[in-house]
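Changelog-linked ticket: magnesium ion example.
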Amino acid sequence: MKVTGYELFQVPPRWLFLKIDTDEGIVGWGEPVVEGRAATVKTAVDELMEYLIGKDPLHIEDHWNVMYRAGFYRGGPILMSAISGIDQALWDIKGKYYNAPVHQLLGGKARESIKVYSWIGGDRPADVGEAAKDMVAKGFTAVKMNGTEELQYVDSYEKIDQVLARIAAVREAVGPHVGIGIDFHGRVHKPMAKILAKELEPFRPMFIEEPVLPENNEALRDIANHVAIPIATGERMYSKWDFKKLLTDGYVDIIQPDLSHAGGITECKKIISMAEAFDVAAAPHCPLGPIALASCLQVDATCHNAFIQEQSLGIHYNQGSDLLDYIVDKQVFEYEDGYVKIPNGPGLGIEINEEHVRTMAEVGHNWRNPVWRHKDGSIAEW
Ligand SMILES: [Mg+2]
């Protein structure tokens, strides 16, 4: 079998889909995108695909190594997201070729389903109590929300009190046992992260996420020594080498590699297995589309330490187009009692509605994340 061609589709709300064709008529789909830089990743995919045309798509491990190692400069969000989407599409082809789901080719399922959580509250969390109640009514047993708006390096206790009021409203709305993930979104700097983590502890969060930016991960030590809340991070880390120090330092409890940013199925399976050896859990990051989610579920199926999966249905980014719009059989992502079954169809286990993809690629998107500034005019982390 040979790769004969490929197409890229920049589709709303903010995604990029890749379709790889073969001479046997089997096609594979991937989602090579980093949010806000779709066109840049598209160019990186074009450069990488030059090598893959004419190659056997089944030799994924070798192709991954060529894409990663045969470039003198490597790593980072753009190149690794491009590799990720190509890798997903190659696995989709391999599964379809052997008429088996990807998880079967990775060793088989360690679980039949996985818990999912839903986002509430958007960028600037408000009315989160009601939103959390709605999600619990829909069967979710875990939710995630942004903890705070922009925070200065050292900010006021008024803002801390506002965060606490929001989390208190959620806890009161959902009762004592629903999981609440609180995303600091890298918006919080070390001086405030300690305070915020300590103040949040009485609400028994499921985890706090990106309590500081990944480039400041040494600050996790203080937080981990300060509170008993599980610490999650990793959506902005891109390879096993990026995760190496995080794991050996020992202050992380949950890693969140993104299957569309951290080298795809091939690399994320390895990253999550590395974490297993440190007794660290995995909750793959996935605020993206159906191909990214299907890829996550294939890997989750085979990883003992994967305990919950992010998914984007109804997320604040999905304006006008949502998770299920691009797939034929929407039941594949049906959530039951807060769990989703591992897809058992060949390849990634989803069927893409190509006609809809083509229609929406005409619409396209130019999504950018907002630019926030502090009151003094300085740029704020979003
Ligand atoms: Mg996050």
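Closing comment: Example verified and attached. The chain has two domains: 3-100, 104-346. The longest strand covers residues 3-11.
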